[in-house]
Design a protein that fits this description.
By secondary structure, this protein is α+β, with helices and mostly antiparallel strands. Helix content is 33%, strand content 29%. It has 8 helices and 15 strands. The strands form 3 sheets. Strands 4-3-5-6-7-8-9-10 form an 8-stranded mixed beta sheet, sandwiched between helices. The protein has a 5-stranded mixed beta sheet with strand order 12-11-13-15-14, with helices on both faces. A two-stranded antiparallel sheet has the order 1-2. Strand 8 and strand 9 form a beta hairpin.
């Protein structure tokens, strides 16, 4: 099996640089925020963090391709770094600390590009999570000071905790009835949003989560962390990995029921 230790170390270095840039501008009174064509916000910190990551990758991994939310794809080949400089920009610009830099390395294989390294760094929460293919998933302050992650063993829907982002996306896609039925069948629901529910699935604090619309950079890093913690990460269509334009993540024991509810059409 391939050893991704050096790539994981590099991802941590990239996350350190991004954390410094994003925290420097977090809650800044003069933070500049623009609206992108899809009507979502982008701040100067999003752009600066991605520029930093791209510059370091070009020096450290000049042969690898890079896909980022703000500046698109650059390069070709069997290895591609996928970057979301700030996942949770709406939180970031309002001073809510639930946002993170997502960094993943994807490699081409028999089933297309799949994530093999992922780092999720949330400096305003003082948290970081990471994983490499075949090496497990961890959380902690550094590679040498870490706790291994393991998904929960909850096997009954009535005992399960479900995390999501919002109701509107499910309603817009004609899936609200199934979503609401699922919330009624669970023990507990909470709308934490963005990257955080996936990390809580990996930690075993939440049993499953789902979102109806996402981009690859939203999912590549979170997918490998969930998978290496023993969980299941698919699209709503059941396809494994971060390629379906939406996501369902679970401890694996409840995944079939999760997909069944969320695929109900109004």
């Amino acid at each position: 099996m391939a050893d991704y230790h050096d790539d994981l170390r590099l991802a941590h270095v990239l996350a350190d640089a991004a954390d410094a840039a994003t925290m420097d501008r977090f809650k800044a009174l003069d933070l500049k925020v623009e609206t992108k064509p899809d009507m979502t916000p982008v701040s100067e910190a999003d752009k600066a963090a991605e520029e930093l990551i791209r510059a370091q990758l070009k020096r450290a991994r000049p042969r690898d391709a890079i896909l980022g939310e703000e500046y698109g794809v650059e390069g070709t080949g069997p290895r591609r770094w996928v970057v979301d400089p700030i996942d949770g920009t709406k939180n970031y610009v309002r001073g809510v600390p639930v946002w993170a830099t997502l960094i993943a390395l994807m490699e081409a294989g028999d089933t297309g590009f799949q994530p093999v390294v992922g780092v999720v760094s949330a400096p305003a929460l003082g948290r970081r999570w990471w994983a490499a293919k075949g090496a497990g998933a961890y959380t902690g302050r550094s590679l040498t000071s870490a706790t291994r992650l393991q998904v929960s063993k909850v096997a009954e829907l009535g005992d399960a905790s479900f995390a999501y982002s919002s109701l509107s996306g499910w309603e817009e896609r004609g899936r609200l009835d199934g979503f609401l039925d699922l919330t009624r069948a669970c023990w507990r629901t909470r709308a934490y949003g963005d990257f955080w529910p996936y990390m809580m699935v990996a930690e075993g604090a939440v049993d499953f989560c789902a979102e109806p619309e996402l981009s690859l950079w939203d999912m590549a890093a979170t997918a490998i962390v969930v998978q290496e913690a023993g969980g299941t990460f698919t699209g709503l269509d059941g396809r494994h990995g971060p390629h379906s334009g939406n996501a369902a993540a679970s401890n694996g024991l409840l995944h079939g029921e999760l997909l069944s509810y969320l695929n109900q059409k109004n």
